[in-house]
Amino acid sequence: MTKKFLLIVFVFFGTVLKAQVPKDQVSVDVNVFPKETVALSINSEVLLAGELLQYKAYIFNASNKISALSKMVYVSLRKQNDSVVFNHKLRVENGTANGDFFIPSNLNTGIYKLIGYTNFSKNNAQNGFVQKDIYIINTFVKRDLDNRKKDTIAITASNGKDFNISEIHGNSEMLKTTLNKQTYGFREKVNLKLESHFKNTDGNYVLSVRKINPVEISGKIPIVTKAISSEIFYVPELRGELISGIVLSISDNVPLANIEVSLTIPDEDFVLKTSKTNSEGRFFFSVSEAYNAENSVVQIYGDAAERSANKVILDKKDFSLNKNKPYFLNISSDLKDWLQERSVQVQVENAYYDIKKDSILPKWINPAFYSNLGTVFNLDDYTRFPSIKETFVEVVTLAAIRGTGDNAKFIVNNEYDPNGTAKFNDIPPLVLLDGIQIVDSKELVNFSTKEIQKVRVIIEPYRYGPKIYSGIIAVETKKGDFIPNEIIKNNSEVSLSSAVKPKESYKPAYDKKSELSKIPDYRVQLLWQPKINFSDLDYNTSFYTSDVPGIFEVKIEGFTEDGTYISEKNYFTVAKN
């Protein structure tokens, strides 16, 4: 990224401050921004209900190299009518991200589109998103055969022609896959070595080992286009997830400037962001932290009249696809035996899910933005008083409540300024309850002290977001689940799905045979490693076969640092011992 581009980004964020902007409000030439595109790798294009769709997303710049811009990527599975099966939000590391989706038993047999995009790539007139066709077969749900009147995509049994697996190679002259042998028994260890022939094969790759499906697909699905407004400029998510919106007057829908807005994502390690609307009434929050909560609280900061007269509308990240003519997925009767066998195998595998489930990697804990500053009053260490006001008189001596009713307000007592003459004493502190900004002091004044665990008071002035506070009063409840009454009354919690959590795929080890000897193993996906690199010019790994015989494909694919696509394949046979 050049210094010129960095300057443009700085100017842009300094003046626009939102995730999507009408182009006529952008103060810089949007054509100077480099393009960004997305590519996808998947474990299989044909999947049965009960199987796992696994994918990896790559983000590229205009030079076809890994992009350093977007820190979020979005992957979605759509039906032919564009209804959404899932929308995944993923955090990007080194230009890539990976996730998976369990195909549920209520998803109909049919043709689906897997699409991937970044907020920034939606600006592209072409290649705004990548798409792959996914063919899902559900053996548990009876099909609507009236759909056969549509144009047809056929899945038939492959011709069954035997081939010499030793004669089949990938299209890469840069990589070589080597197995310790070509035929294995059930539950036997496979040693795999990936070798790089050139020094410039550093890049991003995914390694997949899966049994070859005995099917052929005939027919082609047209590429769908996007229904994204060309009048909007979509901002790159440079630091993390951008959450943006607009504040409007309820009476006449007029955008309102200089309105303070806060976002809290409740959790044990909560996320708090504050912002102020610009001249067009727009605001944004940049969330770099990971979070687990599915709901968030967005509040307008002001008096009761101001809060009740205005409303917040958040921008949406997803978009609609232009609908093409639907296609019917015709499955040959020759596949009946294979489908019955696989259906039983899938059900058995899922029956042992608790034993074979993937491991979710530990989440990085986000420390509170104020870290360990201030003084903590753990109320269990003191005599508990019946009211908050008494508690702040007798226990929390570094803060106080002044006034009553609607005029009640919190202050911090600066022990170094007993006469209250300090520069920031005339401005209010930031008051939090379970990380949620208290915009109505009565909420905390009337709160039950029995539910409070501790109170932290920071008496020094603190700048957070666009505002300076005289200090911070952070109250934590025992349950950590406080939601303001105003939010509950108006049913205005905001649904905010968390990013896909990093996983480590299940890999059985049969070197200790007694532990798993009685557990069936009908895996057809023997290995999925989405993060492969060749820093040492080779890569070694191992895995075990299952109780499923057949021909398995070893596939390594991805992109070098200069954007060259690499695909290398090898094959081996598994037969009963």
Describe what this molecule looks like in 3D.
This protein is mainly beta and 577 residues long. It folds into 3 domains: 34-224 and 320-363 and 503-574, Macroglobulin (MG2) domain (Immunoglobulin-like, Sandwich); 244-314, no CATH class; 375-495, Ferric Hydroxamate Uptake Protein, Chain A, domain 1. 11% of the residues lie in helices and 39% in strands. The protein is built from 8 helices and 41 strands. The chain has a 5-stranded mixed beta sheet. A 5-stranded mixed beta sheet has the order 12-41-40-14-38, with no helix packed on it. The chain has a 5-stranded mixed beta sheet with strand order 27-32-35-30-31, with no helix packed on it. A hairpin with a 2-residue loop joins strand 30 (430-433) and strand 31 (436-437). The longest helix is centred in the middle third of the chain and has 16 residues, at 336-351. The two termini are 56 Å apart. Mean pLDDT is 85; it is low at 1-18.
List the helices and strands and how they pair.
Elements: H1 3-15, E1 20-22, E2 36-42, E3 46-48, E4 52-61, E5 72-78, E6 84-91, E7 96-102, E8 110-117, E9 130-137, E10 151-157, E11 175-179, E12 183-184, E13 189-196, E14 203-211, E15 215-218, E16 226-227, E17 232-234, E18 241-249, E19 260-265, E20 271-276, E21 282-287, E22 295-301, H2 304-309, E23 310-314, E24 320-321, E25 327-331, H3 336-351, H4 353-356, E26 359-360, E27 375-378, H5 388-394, E28 399-402, E29 409-412, E30 430-433, E31 436-437, H6 441-445, E32 452-458, E33 462-464, E34 467-469, E35 472-477, H7 485-490, E36 494-495, E37 503-504, H8 513-516, E38 525-532, E39 538-544, E40 550-560, E41 565-574
Parallel strand pairs: 3-9, 10-25, 12-41, 30-35
Antiparallel strand pairs: 1-17, 2-4, 4-7, 5-6, 5-8, 8-9, 10-15, 11-13, 13-39, 14-38, 14-40, 16-24, 18-21, 18-23, 19-20, 19-22, 22-36, 26-37, 27-32, 28-29, 30-31, 32-35, 33-34, 40-41
